[in-house]
Structure formats: structure tokens, C-alpha cells
Amino acid sequence: MLASAVEPTVSDVEKDAGDDDYAHLTNDAVHSYSWEGITVTVNDRNTKSKKQILTDINGFVKEGELLALMGPSGSGKTTLLNVLARRPQSGVSVQESLLVNGNPVPLGDFRQISSYVEQEDALVGSLTVRETLHFAAELSLPRSVGKTERLQRIEALVQAFGLQDQAKSLIGTPIRKGISGGQKRRLSVASQLITSPKILFLDEPTSGLDSAASYEVINFVKTIAKKYKLLVIASIHQPSTSTFEMFDRLLLLSRGTVVYNGLTASAQSYFESHGFPMPLYTNPAEFMIDLVNTDFSRSRGQKIEQLESLQAAWTNSQNASELSAEISGASPKDKSPQSIVVGSEKSVHKLFVSLTLMHRSFIKSYRDIIAYGIRIAMYMGLAIMMGTVWLRLSPKQENIPSFINAIFFGGAFMSFMAVAYIPAFLEDRALYVKERSNGLYGPTAFMIANFVTGLPYLFVIALLFSIVVYWLSNFNPTAIKFWTWVMWLFLDLVAAESLVVLLSSLMPIFVVALAATAFANGLWMSVMGFMVAPNRLNVFWRYVFHYIDYQAYVFQGMMVVEFAGRTYDCASDCQCMYSSDLADQCKIDGKGVLDFYGYKTGRNGLWAGILIGIIAGYRLLGWLVLYLRRT
Description:
Rossmann fold, 2 domains, 6-stranded mixed sheet, 24 helices, transport, ATP binding, ABC-type transporter activity, transmembrane helix, ABCG_dom
């Protein structure tokens, strides 16, 4: 096995290549990956015409090699990487010929032999390094891979990527420091290798890292590729000299067209032969990108002419002919498409995926205080404030408005503060997008796990809040009334969180989701029945919004809890502010308050059913948004 040194040498890796623990990583099936004639067009919204962003791109990479897709910003390298990884792109028309061992491969089989590492490290910060790999294995490996083999794969990857000392360390959250950026990037790569892919795609693997960390990441990837004969294709912006020299092949793009495509070691001499010698002590990657970049040139027309000359030179060059011959030489007889994928069980059972996601979410939720810890503390602070402001209200008519105000404030404010869940959900959603793109699971498993995980925490919040507020404020003091109150508050929180999930899925930008959720809660508070009684509400707001307002059912349910079956003393002169059958006794029957708002008793089941239906509607709409959106 590899030592724990930060930068293992290739000779060290080759020496360990026979270790049984690493045997599952070795690629014996895919010998080459080639592509011809890749052309990508998109609809230009400004000119309302089609715009070509990639034009006739050919390429080749074989086992054990690293290919760098390089070029200035806007050159098309990320688009090309997504095409090569066979990732769908909305609004894009693609013409392609992608061959594995000289053969076309069905998309399902290609997904099984390849993995994609995103530019951003979409990792759960409250998990440890080993737990991250464990859940990657649980979500991607079929049941035919036993527990012992799973553990062997995890430990092999921990060792291979030099993460032994960090195996039990948390990845890191905004309030708790974790592993370094370079270690996160290595972990992202390792988590994709758990399924033993043959082809590895990396989107800007050095983005956000300094030169030392960038070298460390690429060095580890090269080590793994050489040792286990993997094919690695990476888009990279402007690597350091030492990082650049670790790539075996270079595909240099500018304005969607190839400028050079061949061995990295030959690139300098190629440009020198065309009249562009590289100055001494210059980073070759920086030199080449500057050479083909037309965005910041003072004489842009001259620069474009120079670029077109280089593109034409490549098309007519001997190097391009040699590349075409190399692509043609990838014999279809090496491996048939059917033999590339081994094993009959191709995926994890959907139920097991949901259970695994729940397990991961529960670990995150109790370790990461941002998810629920801060909310519990916030709600308890609110409960203490409410309980002491509305302290020990006696059942007198002058306190009836105070009871109503407390009911409104408690339910509405608890609902409104569900916005605190937005950051935690957006983090979960980012991980879902990455894992869905890699074919691990879909929106159904994600939505089920997200919903179930939140239920116990929301119930705890509702119970703790109610214990403090209900008894301090002296609401209707019976056990059944208390637990009915807890039920309404729990359903209120579940509905509010479901609304957050829907809006954050629709608008996955924190500030936008926050604004949309705040507006929606403001709307629901306005038409719920407190500001204006439902029987006096404008017909438009009543029939369009009031009956689908979950806060309206919570409010009337809590009103029934307090006022049904309870009496209040009138003023000393027996002037009662609400009419009821007890007026002659100088008392107010709570039903008189309910009659003023148009609320009936005995409808708790109906209201709860409607509220559950609204929750289900939010969740179904959220599922639909996640299903339709892939980014």
C-alpha cells in the first residue's frame, strides 16, 4: 500500500500494484476512449439564431493516461467535458461519435464504467472522510458487493489518496474547521472511484486551490491512473508548470475549435515549429492560453487572424493526421461493448437508497447545528419570550384578544422562521444534483429521505415550544387540548418546511429563495383569518388563497383548542364583548368567539386532512421541480 507521504512517486505506486486490496480498482476492460466530429450548437437568445460553441472536435485517450482540456474562458472546454461524459445539457444540440475500445456503448453501460467529479466539492461537511466513502459505497455499489469487500474498497481508497490521518476528521462546516481544500478535492475523486470506474472525468479539479494543493491533487490522480490503468479526462484552466507537465495529453481549445491535440511533451516544439517559440522561464500552460486568447488583446482583429491561422495549421498538420490514425487504430476487437460491464446487478435497490439517504441525513442533522440545532435554540428563545409576555392570562374577556394574538403570533412566526432551513436544504440539494448526475438516485429517493428526516426534529420543536408557551400563557388547561395544540403546531412546521423545500428547489439561490419564502409567508399571514375574519374577507382573497392557506387551518384549529369548551368572565358591569348563551350569567362561552370568526367545532379531522393534503401538494410540486431541473 501507499505510504502516508503527501506526494507518493509513480515507482512507489507501481511497486504496490499487485496488492489484492486494490485489485477492484484495476481497469482491464477499457483500453481506449475516442471521439470524432463533436459539434455543439445552442440557441443564441440575443440574435435568435443558432450559435456553434464546438466545431468538429476529435480526440483520443488510452488507459493510464491523463488528458487535459485547456483553453481560455469561453473556449468550450466544460461543454466538451460534459459531452464526453455524456451528460445531458438543456437547450443544446450535439453531434457526436463516442467510442470505447472503438465501439459505441449504450448510455447505461457508459454510466457504469465512468464517473464525474464536479468542480465544486459537494460534500456533507458534518461527515468524516471515512463516512463519506462509506455512504458513497452504500449508494453506488449493488448488494452483490459484500460488506467485507466494501470495507476493503474504502480502506484502499483512504490509503491510496493519503487520507489515513484524516479518516476520522470531519470534512468541515461553516462553523467548524475541517480538512484542507486539497484533501477535500482528493476525497471528491476518491468517492467517485468507489465503484471502480474505468474512465474518470474531472471538471476544474484545481479550481480554488493554490499551486501546491493543485500539484498534490493532480499528482494523486496521475498516480492512481498509472497504477490502475484508468483513463482520466480533466478540464483545467491555467495550471502551474509542474502540474501541467503531469498530463500525458493536451487538447487546447479556443473559440470552440482545436488549436492543438496531442502529447503534452510535444506541444512546445509544435508551436515553435509554427513560429511561436516559448520564452525561457515561462509557464507553458500560461504561454499557450495567452497565445490563443482573443479577449484581452489590444489589436483584437490581428489576434483573431493569428488564432484562425493556428487552427488551420492544426487541421493541416502531420500531428492531426497522426491523431486520426490513432483513433482509427483503436480496434473494435479489443473488447466488445457487452464485456465492458461486468455483473448482472446494475444498481442499488430504490428502497435501500432511500434508507441510506435517511441515515446520512440523520447524521448530518444532529451534527450540523445549522440544520436544526440553531432552529431549536431560536424557537425555545421565542417560546420563553412568548410565555413571559403572555404570562398567566386569566380567563377574562379583556384577555380574549391577547389569547387570539398569541395564537396568531405563535403559529405564524413559527412558520415564518422556517426560512432558517434554506441553507441546509440548498447544501443537500447541491449534493443531490451531483449524485443524480452520476446516476446514483433520482428525486423520489431524495424527497422521501428529506421529508422523513425532518419529522422527528419538527415534532421535538413543536413539543418543546408548546410545553413552555401553552402552560405559561395559561391556554385551555386540559391534556387533550394540549396535545391537539401540539398536533397543529407540528403540522404547521411540516407545511412550512415543505414550502421552503418547494421554493428553494424552484429558485436554488439563497437570497432569492429567502425573499420568495418571506413573501409567501406574508401572503399566508394576511389571508389566514386573523387580520380579517374569513367570513369578512374579500371574495377574491378568500376563494383564491384562503382555502389553500395552511396557516388558516392551523389558526382555526388552535382557536378551537382555546375557545371550545371554555368560558370567560365579562366585565364587572356584565357588558360582554361577544354574545353567547351565557350572557345572562355574566360570562362568555368560547363558542361565541368562534362564531364571530365563522369557525365550527368538531372539524379537526377535516382540517387536519386538508392540511396534510397541502403538505403532500407542496412535496409533489417540489418533486416535480427536482425531476424537471437537473442543475
